[in-house]
Amino acid sequence: MPELIAPTTRLHTAWLAARADWGPGVHEDGFGLRPEDEVDSPEGFAAWVARLTAEPGSVCRWIVEDGQVLGGIALRHGPEDYVRVFGHIGYGVRPSARRRGLATWALGRMVAEARDLEQVLVVCEDGNTASMRTIERNGGVFDGMYGTLRRYLIKTR
């Protein structure tokens, strides 16, 4: 059974395996990874995890099962400009763990955690039908396009 947990340094090797599953140069949505983050060394990974867990206005969780990191999801309350473009919630599931309903499950859990907001904005690339279905299964209502991004609103209450 999967669980959502706070980022932790004890899963460094498991997280690196998840990143390798995505492949080089691919963005892992939901992990809050920035280009300047160095996550290969234990020290760099620890610094990144410390930033994730202390970042104001953001809640990051990893989708973990049997010691494997299967994906990540983040709830963002700000900054407002960033949320307006990329949404309140971003998520990603590693390729080898897809088609199991993990993204739908994790998004539902994170929407429940966002009860302090009346609704959340979730976006996905136009044409990403798996993500569109995930959002719609959680009550997402299409709210228009922003460039190549489809915008969905989900009521939290």
Report on this structure.
Residues 20-157 form the N-acetyltransferase domain. This is Putative acetyltransferase. Pfam families: Acetyltransf_3. GO terms for molecular function: acyltransferase activity, transferring groups other than amino-acyl groups. Keywords: Transferase. It is a single chain. A four-stranded antiparallel beta sheet has the order 1-2-3-4, sandwiched between helices. Strands 5-7-6 form a three-stranded antiparallel beta sheet, sandwiched between helices. The mean pLDDT is 93. With 157 residues, it is of the alpha+beta class. Helices cover 33% and strands 29% of the residues. It has a single domain (3-155), classed as 3-Layer(aba) Sandwich (Aminopeptidase).
Q: TL;DR?
A:
It is built from 5 helices and 7 strands, in the order βααββαβαβαββ. The chain has 157 residues and is an alpha+beta fold. It has one domain: Gcn5-related N-acetyltransferase (GNAT) (Aminopeptidase, 3-Layer(aba) Sandwich), CATH 3.40.630.
**Helical fraction:** 25-40%
- So what's the CATH class? Alpha Beta
Q: Low-confidence runs (pLDDT<50, min 5 residues)? A: none
Write down the Rg. 15 Å
Number of E-type strands: 7
- CATH superfamily grouping: Gcn5-related N-acetyltransferase (GNAT)
Number of helices: 5
As a percent range, the share of strand residues is 25-35%
Q: Which structural class best describes the helix and strand composition? A: alpha+beta
CATH architecture: 3-Layer(aba) Sandwich
Would you tell me the overall average pLDDT? 93
